[in-house]
Amino acid sequence: EAALAWESRFEPAMTADGTRIEVVANLGNTAHARDAVSRGAEGIGLLRTEFLFMAQAEMPDVEAQQALYREALDALDGRPLVARTLDVGGDKPLSYWPVPREDNPFLGLRGIRLALTRPQVLRDQFCALIKAAEGRPLRIMLPMVKDVAEFRAARQIFDEVIEELAVTADGEALQLGVMIEIPSSALLASTLAAEVDFFSVGTNDLTQYTLAIDRGHPQLSAQSDGLHPAVLKLIEMTVQAAHAHGKWVGVCGELASDRQAVPVLLGLGVDELSVSARQVPMVKTRLRGLTMDEARRQAQLALAQPTAEAVRSALEDQA
Ligand code: PEP
Ligand code: MG
């Protein structure tokens, strides 16, 4: 099966009844973009830009950032790049952007909240990304957005930048979206969907905040499962809100490459799965073996279970 998956890795992922799902890769190092393409990735669904910044001794200026982003875009050769703006704080400290000591860093100054305390950093990043793209498909997404007010604050900076650079975000080459990784943003997905270009569900943080389990907790890791029906319910709400507004939804957390989760996410209506580059051939093969009816059936089966454990055992016999 693995050999067959590898041979067909450049073919698009189409379900047996003709629904097309984009399979793209997560990236933390722009030098690895070429490798992702060679494994069949149809683009990058999550560039964790904070990792690029962590590899620097000081805040890279617009020009230095542009060079990094250009490296990824060149390797992608016209395929889309979804770049996440800096997601610092929580589990990802940045030495030259110290955050005051907090009792609960995961509930503190992180992601978009932190970014909005230094709008110039966000402005520079928008600017560098758009300049590097030079009209190639670029989707910028904001991490840890909890409601539409945070999106609007970032959108205002984005709008100033695109006006300065005389480009337009017409929904084709350039899009601005948000990650759905805080339960509040899933619950309020309709209000967000009216204003964003797309959603990408970060199941790692969404699971952490929904179940109140630290994503890295050694003793609780078995319980920290994105297939929990509560998390699936939030994903379902997100997809329904997005599609009602004609927007697309990706999933870029670990759940996207979980064998049992792939049919469920497909059945919930997700349009794009972003996985580690190594998993691209497997995920594409898995999608090709499904029909939408079958996937919807598995999604409903999962949603009807009371616990993550029950979801996994109900899905076991479905493979
Ligand atoms: C997530 O939270 O699911 C996600 C994709 O982002 P990160 O793992 O970088 O927090
Ligand atoms: Mg996250």
Secondary-structure blueprint:
Layout lengths: L1 H6 L5 E2 L5 E8 L5 H6 L5 E5 H6 L7 H15 L4 E4 L26 H5 L3 H15 L4 E5 L5 H17 L9 E7 L2 H5 L1 H5 L4 E4 L1 H9 L17 H16 L3 E4 L9 H8 L3 E4 L4 H9 L3 H12 L4 H9 L3
Parallel strand pairs: 2-3, 2-9, 3-4, 4-5, 5-6, 6-7, 7-8, 8-9
Antiparallel strand pairs: 1-2
Helix pairs in contact: 4-6, 6-7, 12-14, 14-15
Task: Please give the share of residues in helix.
Answer: 40-55%
Structural class: alpha/beta
How far apart lie the N and C ends?
14 Å
User: What number is the mean pLDDT?
Assistant: 96
Overall geometry: globular
Largest sheet: 8 strands, parallel, barrel
Query: Which small molecules are bound?
Result: phosphoenolpyruvate, magnesium ion
Q: In order across it, which strands form the biggest sheet?
A: 2-3-4-5-6-7-8-9
What is the rounded Rg? 19 Å
Could you list the spans in which at least 5 consecutive residues all have pLDDT below 50?
none
H and E string: HEEHEHHEHHEHEHHEHHEHEHHH
Strand content: 5-15%
User: Helix tally?
Assistant: 15
Number of strand segments = 9
Protein name: phosphoenolpyruvate--protein phosphotransferase
Organism: Halomonas cupida
Subcellular location: Cytoplasm
Family: Belongs to the PEP-utilizing enzyme family.
Describe this protein's structure.
It is found in: Cytoplasm. Belongs to the PEP-utilizing enzyme family. This is phosphoenolpyruvate--protein phosphotransferase. 45% of the residues lie in helices and 13% in strands. By secondary structure, it is an alpha/beta fold. Residues 46, 48, 87, 181, 202-205, 252-253 line the site of phosphoenolpyruvate (PEP).
